[in-house]
Design goal:
Layout: H1 30-41, E1 48-50, E2 56-58, E3 60-65, E4 72-77, E5 86-92, H2 97-110, H3 128-136, H4 143-154, E6 160-163, E7 173-177, E8 182-187, H5 206-229, E9 233-238, H6 243-254
Parallel strand pairs: 8-9
Antiparallel strand pairs: 1-2, 3-4, 4-5, 6-7, 7-8
Length: 257
């Protein structure tokens, strides 16, 4: 038995393993690669390598087939001051890349190489998992926003991205159609209190999150009012909405249909 799971290497003694067992599709985005590692590790919070007393680095499992070995080997890699250290985890022998990544992360945990990063003293977040979630909620270029932009652009409409409809109002819309005076906001279900998907926080600071969501809701209502008074049309889209339907709604408003 090898370090990283079983090591049976079925049928691989005479031929190299299938590329689907270790090699990912070319051209994937950084976000896709990060999500793949998060899934295999069972969550972002379990992917940290301790560098010293107060420094941690986010690690990844790398799968490689070395020349003449006909075996898939798993390595743990991370970045530290411009260097990329690696630890050999062992051989893996599953039929898919996803399963072999999981096996690599299991070996890393068993060897005590990775774990959760402690919450920094004085942090406003109640756990490392919460802080990881907050970092993952980007303010622009989110997946729903990118899909919406692509569909609208395909219809021949042009727009400004992450711009202020009113220069003197510090409110940024995700898409701005200046000539048609239409401002589009793609709202996250958690941050903006979606009535369909929002769930109250169950962390140690439920009052903090409840107040924060209420502030965001009030701000959204004020933004709608200020833009309406200035002659603008506001279109708000929840991140869970079907992008095709959302795009059609925006196109209809911009074209005055």
């Amino acid at each position: 038995m090898t370090d990283a799971r079983h090591g049976r290497q079925n049928g691989w003694n005479d031929q190299p393993p299938s590329t689907r067992a270790w090699k990912g599709r070319a051209g994937r985005s950084r976000e896709t690669l990060t999500a793949e590692q998060d899934r295999a590790a069972g969550g972002r919070q379990g992917r940290y390598v301790r560098l010293d007393d107060d420094r941690y680095a986010l690690a990844s499992v790398e799968l490689k087939v070395l020349p003449h070995t006909r075996r898939i080997r798993a390595y743990l890699r991370w970045s530290d001051k411009g260097r990329s250290p690696a630890k050999y985890l062992g051989q893996v022998d599953n039929d898919t890349r996803a399963a072999n990544l999981v096996a690599g992360w299991e070996a890393a945990v068993e060897k005590g190489l990775v774990g959760a990063r402690p919450v920094p003293r004085g942090s406003w977040a109640s756990s490392d998992a919460v802080r990881a979630s907050m970092r993952g909620n980007r303010g622009k270029d989110t997946g729903p926003e990118l899909r919406l932009r692509s569909l609208i652009h395909r219809e021949g409409l042009r727009y400004r991205v992450s711009a202020r409809p009113l220069p003197d109002l510090r409110r940024t819309a995700d898409l701005v159609f200046t000539k048609a005076r239409v401002a589009v906001f793609v709202d996250g279900c958690f941050w903006h209190g979606c009535p369909e998907h929002h769930r109250p926080a169950t962390t140690r600071n439920p009052e903090f999150w409840r107040d924060k969501i209420e502030v965001n809701r009030s701000r959204d209502e004020e933004t709608n009012r200020r833009l309406f008074e200035a002659g603008w049309t506001v279109v708000r889209i929840w991140e869970h909405e079907d992008p095709v339907n959302a795009a059609q709604r925006v196109i209809a408003v911009v074209r005055g249909q």
